[in-house]
Automatic annotation (TrEMBL):
An example molecular function term from Gene Ontology annotations: ATP hydrolysis activity
Protein name per Swiss-Prot or TrEMBL: Multidrug ABC transporter ATP-binding protein
Domain ABC transporter: 6-235
Native species: Caldimonas caldifontis
InterPro entries assigned: AAA+_ATPase (IPR003593), ABC_transporter-like_ATP-bd (IPR003439), ABC_transporter-like_CS (IPR017871), ABC_transporter_ATP-binding (IPR050763), P-loop_NTPase (IPR027417)
Amino acid sequence: MTSPIIAVQGLHKTYASGHVALKALDLEIRRGEIFALLGPNGAGKTTLISILCGIVTPSGGRALIDGYELARDYRAVRSLIGLVPQELSTDAFETVWATVTFSRGLFGKPANPALIERILKDLSLWDKRDAKIRTLSGGMKRRVMIAKALSHEPGILFLDEPTAGVDVELRRDMWALVRRLREQGVTIILTTHYIEEAEEMADRIGVINHGELILVQDKVTLMRQLGKKRLTLQLQQPLATVPGGMNGYDLELGGNGHELIYTFDAQAEHSGIAGLLKRLDEQGIAFKDLHTEQSSLEEIFVNLVRQAR
């Protein structure tokens, strides 16, 4: 069995304020996999990524990145990693081409216009290559952030909440790009609190809450455990009736219209949850919380999503 590309042992972080962001975390990421870190806001996802990318110093523990000791071999580690952070931070007055090319140069890589062209085309940015960053939409700016992260050909790509606040088209483009990168041998670590995103893309899923890694499991196995017969969505706005465009799903209303309840076959190969959430998104039906019932992971899952509001 090949060695893990990332190996974390006893990693923990306590900030000066006394806030404990990570608690003695152990984790191994397999080479070439898509690993989704699932958890609510404040669970410790961004802190873990920031430590592994060298942005935040841990309070203790050890991290090996492709055999390099993070604390000792920072420069070597950083050259292996591409990071797409949550925040959109780009040079507003630079062109798309210039900012992506400059980002490659920061890592001491020689100029490679053909590579930059391919990256921009993969991200549907080629037509915008001469546009100033400040003129782009939020979705296009996020694509530029991904292009910058890929410009130095990293073997490991961190995507921190990559689809937060983006439209359905960009989300689908991003999923397709992530799969292509995996086919090229890139290891991808994705943080998200969207279950459908993890179900759609990940090979394995880790669940983090209150700075603790609660479980790590193969995606298929975990989704089978989470998908136990009944999914209840707490709606942002109450509904008078089940929407007419939701044919094919066994749905009913509860909680005086504030809950949408989905019943499904727990033994089926696909739970249908990802498709249901996509259909709700298309119809503009927002939910603020969700939980499953009759699940061996019910307590973990409910605790997870309750804090995602």
